[in-house]
Write a structure and sequence with these properties.
The protein has one domain: Muramoyl-pentapeptide Carboxypeptidase, domain 2 (2-Layer Sandwich), CATH 3.30.1380. The protein has a 5-stranded mixed beta sheet with strand order 1-2-4-3-5, with helices on one face. The chain is of the alpha+beta class. The protein is 34% helix and 14% strand. The chain contains 5 helices and 5 strands; from the N terminus they run H-H-H-E-H-E-H-E-E-E. The chain is globular, with a radius of gyration of 16 Å.
Length: 177
């Protein structure tokens, strides 16, 4: 199978979020079989795509506190919908990677903090649509390869030691190693 086939399987997974759990599990297993050398995993439980903007975002493996600014500033409530979308994609990534834990080193950043650390002015971190991640047992290249498929319509960048992922509405890719 080609990368295009993998992308098609991922598109079907997203489209099946309201279909039966059985069909969803089969598609996840098919995708898992394509992504060697990753280990088998338990079937994924579908989560809601988007929370109400006033509901605190959460998924099975992520909580809002993981997405706060590194200076301790909480994610503003008006950005909760963005965080929920990001969490949902990260859950999919975790599942595809064989349920490996994902560590978030940076997510939401307010404008002052983003400028202080040298972030770009129009960073997706400012609107809580981005996370810099590491995955237990995998290097940046391996994570990037799979994130490229899961975040097919968003941003994915690879750096030494971490991968940036985001849920922007336009595909973007970069390599800063």
């Amino acid at each position: 199978m080609t990368k295009i086939d993998v992308a098609r399987v991922l598109n079907k997974i997203i489209a099946l979020k309201k279909e039966t759990q059985t069909a969803f599990d089969e598609m996840i297993c098919d995708l898992q079989n394509l992504l060697e050398p990753f280990e088998p995993f338990e079937p994924f439980e579908a989560k809601s795509e988007i929370a109400e903007t006033t509901d605190e975002p959460k998924t099975a493996h992520f909580c809002l506190a993981e997405f706060k600014c590194r200076d301790g500033t909480a994610v503003p409530k008006q950005l909760y919908k963005n965080v929920q979308s990001l969490m949902d994609k990260l859950e999919t990534l975790r599942t595809v990677l064989g349920d490996r834990p994902i560590y978030i080193s940076s997510a939401y950043r307010h404008e002052k903090y983003n400028a202080k650390i040298g972030g770009v002015k129009d960073s997706q971190h400012i609107v809580a649509k981005a996370a810099d991640i590491r995955v237990k047992g995998l290097n940046s290249t391996q994570v990037y390869t799979v994130a490229d498929k899961v975040f097919y319509d968003g941003g994915v960048g690879v750096y030494d030691g971490f991968v940036h992922v985001d849920v922007r509405t336009k595909k973007a890719r970069w390599d800063k190693r």
